[in-house]
Amino acid sequence: MFSHESKSVVFKGMLRPRVRAGAEPAVQAASAEAEMELCRKPERPMLYSVVAQSRADLRDPENSPSVSMWPYLLVSAQTQRLNEISIYTQKGTTAEALRYLYMNDLALTIWAEMKKDAKVVGRLHRPPQGAVLAFGMPFGE
Asked: 58 with 119, same domain?
């Protein structure tokens, strides 16, 4: 019997040898239902909000998390939250979305506490591969 525990899911089951087609299995599964339960993956929660920043937003350097968020955390005595913040950035393609920020929920909450506008245009499980870490800690699964 093995048990694997992650942040929100615990998987339990029996280790079984891989069975090739036409071969007799050495260990029989308790039931097909139990075997299917082990194969199911939990639904992935949407962890990152996609925030679009326009050309007008980018004219003010304070609208960049890498410039303004750390001073805010210092002043508000919340520096310990840095370990939970994850913000990625990616170049946009239009004047209304010149830059995309991929913010986890805590980063978006702090952004709102800072009275910064956030035009949320979507949610993703994780940032795209082309996105670059702008502030905080890297995404981890």
From this structure: yes
What phi, psi does 37 have (nearest 5°)?
-60, -35
Q: Which helix (H) or strand (E) holds 12?
A: strand 10-13
- Pair type for strands 2-5 and 86-91: unpaired
pTM over 0.90: no
Contact 86, 36 (CB under 8 A): no
- For 48, residues 6+ apart whose C-beta sits below 8 A from its C-beta are 86, 88, 102, 103, 104, 123, 124, 125, 126, 127, 139
Strands 2-5 and 10-13: antiparallel
Q: How many residues does the chain have?
A: 141
Looking at the structure, do residues 18 and 75 belong to the same domain, yes or no? no
Residue 141 lies in a domain: no
Its domain, for residue 26, covers: 2-39
Counting the structural domains of the chain, the total is 2
pLDDT string in tens for the chain (141-residue length)? 444 454 444 444 444 445 555 555 444 444 444 444 444 455 667 689 999 999 999 999 999 999 999 999 999 999 999 999 999 999 998 989 999 999 999 999 999 999 998 899 999 988 999 999 999 998 765
